[in-house]
Give the backbone structure.
Amino acid sequence: QVQLVESGGGLVQAGGSLRLSCAASGRTPSSHTMGWFRQAPGKEREFVATISRSGGYIYYRDSVKGRFTISRDNAKNTVYLQMNRLEPEDTAVYYCAADLILSADQMRTLVPGTRGYWGRGTQVTVSS
């Protein structure tokens, strides 16, 4: 079992920045591929970024490339999502996920409820 707790969300103006954190605890979090997903009202949850166990493989959805950066600190069992130049379209609840088996590439298509571990999410609201 792995427990995930997200933090760092909030209200920010368009063009601003936020840094999300995901603190992991439980069974060897550093052995898990990690990812950030988001869900806007009325929409399905979507992949934002994933990172491999070592941090050597990283994937982003196209709309956040060049603006968001995912990173992890395995010594602190924490994954981060630095979000710059935020846009109103980035408004959503952001979820952290972990999976022991999937690669960072495979995790991009992870469906909630099918496998892996999920946090409860943190709200990000970007005003125009």
User: Anything to note?
Assistant: The first strand starts at residue 2 and ends at 7. The radius of gyration is 13 Å. DSSP finds one helix and eleven strands in the chain. The chain has a mean pLDDT of 95.
